[in-house]
TrEMBL record:
Molecular function per GO: glycerate kinase activity
PANTHER family for the chain: GLYCERATE KINASE
Family: Belongs to the glycerate kinase type-1 family.
InterPro entries per the UniProt record, alphabetical: Glyc_kinase_flavodox-like_fold, Glycerate_kinase, Glycerate_kinase_RE-like, Glycerate_kinase_sf
Entry protein name: Glycerate kinase
GO biological process, one term: organic acid phosphorylation
Keywords: Kinase, Transferase
Length: 379
C-alpha cells in the first residue's frame, strides 16, 4: 500500500517535513510494510522556503527592519542562480511581534522590501514570494518604500506609510522605483483569496489576530480603500478586488500595484515545483494537514489544494490537524474525506505545541487503525 504524505507546517511547533516524518512513524506502527512518500509543501505562508529549497547552504541571511521597526535577522533562499524564494513572514511576520506591542496601525512591510532588494542586488531576475503570516496591514506600502517608492501627503511631504495613516497619502511617486524591480518577474504565492477591502478583506478577516479592535478594523479598512482608489487613479487599474489582494494585510495588492507582481495560488505553485502529481502514481491514500483547519481553509490552504489534485485520481484524503475550528463540514465538498485532530484530551495550547510531534504520531496511528478497520470490513 502506497501512502503520500504532504502536509503544511504546524506553525510554532513543526516544519512540514517533520510533520510528515511523525505521521509516517505513526502509520507504520500499524503497518510497517507501507510504501510512504513524503513531500514538504506550503501554501505561500511559513515553510515556503524550506519546501522549495531545503538545502540550508542556499539560504541567505539579512538584517532587516522588522514589523514594529526593530532590526531582525531574516532569510530567503536561492532557488537557482537567478531566482529567489522569499517568505514575507521572515521579515514582517506575526511571530516577530509580542502580544504587548501588536498594532497593525504601526506595523510595516519595509523589511520585506529590503529582502526583495537584497535578492535583486545579487542579480536575481525572478522573485517568488510567499505572503502568508503577516503582522502588517499597510497595503505593501512599507515594502514599496524600501524599493524606492515615495508616499506624499497634501503638502508634498513624505509619509511613513503604515496602516494607521494610509488615508493621509495624497500622491504616490513611482519615479524612484528601482530599475531592477521593473525588470524582474515577481510571482506572488498567496495562501488566501481575500480581496483588499470589505467584509472579507484584509482588515476585517485578519486584523483581529494582529491586534486590531473592531474600531481599528474600520479605520484600517477605510485606509486601504483610500490607498486603492488613489492607485486606481494613478494606474487606471482597479486591483482591490483581485483574489489575494488582501493577503498579508494588503501586501498582495502592493506587490501588484507597485511592483507589477502576479498573484498565484501558493499551494498550486508549490505542488508543481515538488512534483506532487507524479508522486500520486500508484498511491492508495493521501495524508495532509496543517496546524489549524476550519471553514476558512477553502480559501487556498494546503489541505484543500492537496485534495483537489488527489480527487482527480480518485484518491481518499485524510487531514490531520492540530486544531479543528468551525465550518469544517464544508471541506467535505472539496475532496477531503476525513479530519483527525492531534489533540487526544483537553489541554492548554502551550502543552499542545510542546507535544506536537508526539501528538502527531499518536493521531496518525489512531487514524490509520480506523482505516485498517474499514479495509477489513470492505474485504
Amino acid at each position: 500500500m502506497k501512502v503520500v504524505i504532504a502536509s503544511d507546517s504546524y506553525k510554532g511547533s513543526n516544519t512540514s517535513i517533520k510533520v510528515a516524518a511523525a505521521i509516517e512513524r505513526g502509520i507504520k506502527k500499524v503497518d510497517p510494510s507501507l510504501d510512504v512518500v513524503k513531500l514538504p509543501v506550503a501554501d505561500g505562508g511559513e515553510g515556503l522556503v524550506q519546501a522549495l529549497v531545503p538545502e540550508e547552504d542556499k539560504w541567505v541571511y539579512v538584517n532587516v527592519t522588522g514589523p514594529m521597526g526593530k532590526q531582525v535577522k531574516a532569510e530567503y533562499a536561492l532557488y537557482n542562480e537567478d531566482t529567489a524564494v522569499i517568505e514575507m513572514a521572515s521579515a514582517s511576520g506575526l511571530p516577530l511581534v509580542t502580544d504587548s506591542v501588536k498594532d497593525p496601525r504601526k506595523a510595516t512591510t519595509f523589511g520585506t522590501g529590503e529582502l526583495i532588494k537584497d535578492a535583486l542586488d545579487r542579480g536575481c531576475k525572478t522573485i517568488l514570494i510567499g505572503i502568508g503570516g503577516s503582522a502588517t496591514n499597510d497595503g505593501g506600502c512599507g515594502m514599496a518604500r524600501a524599493l524606492g517608492v515615495k508616499f506624499l501627503d497634501a503638502s508634498g511631504q513624505e509619509v511613513d506609510a503604515v496602516g494607521g495613516n494610509l488615508d493621509s497619502i495624497k500622491d504616490v511617486d513611482l519615479s524612484g522605483l528601482l530599475p531592477s524591480v521593473k525588470n524582474a518577474t515577481i510571482k506572488v504565492a498567496c495562501d488566501v483569496d481575500n480581496p483588499l477591502c470589505g467584509e472579507q478583506g484584509a482588515s476585517a478577516i485578519y486584523g483581529p489576530q494582529k491586534g486590531a479592535t473592531p474600531e481599528m478594523v474600520k479605520v484600517l479598512d477605510a485606509n486601504l480603500k483610500s490607498l486603492a482608489e488613489l492607485m486606481k487613479s494613478k494606474t487606471g487599474q482597479d486591483m482591490a478586488e483581485v483574489p489575494g489582494a488582501g493577503a498579508a494585510g494588503g501586501l498582495g495588492f502592493g506587490l501588484m500595484a507597485f511592483c507589477g507582481g502576479v498573484l498565484e495560488k501558493g499551494i498550486d505553485l508549490v505542488l508543481d515545483s515538488v512534483g506532487f502529481d507524479a508522486s500520486l502514481e500508484g498511491a492508495d491514500l493521501v495524508i495532509t494537514g496543517e496546524g489549524r483547519i476550519d471553514g476558512q481553509s477553502v480559501r487556498g490552504k494546503v489541505p484543500v489544494g492537496i485534495a483537489a489534485r488527489a480527487k482527480k485520481k480518485n484518491l481518499p484524503v485524510l487531514v490531520i490537524a492540530g486544531d479543528i475550528g468551525p465550518g469544517i463540514s464544508n471541506l467535505y465538498e472539496y475532496g477531503i474525506d476525513a479530519v483527525m485532530s492531534t489533540v487526544n484530551k483537553a489541554m492548554p495550547l502551550k502543552e499542545a505545541l510542546e507535544r506536537s510531534t508526539e501528538l502527531l504520531e499518536d493521531a496518525a496511528e489512531r487514524a490509520f487503525r480506523m482505516i485498517k478497520i474499514g479495509m477489513d470490513i470492505k474485504a
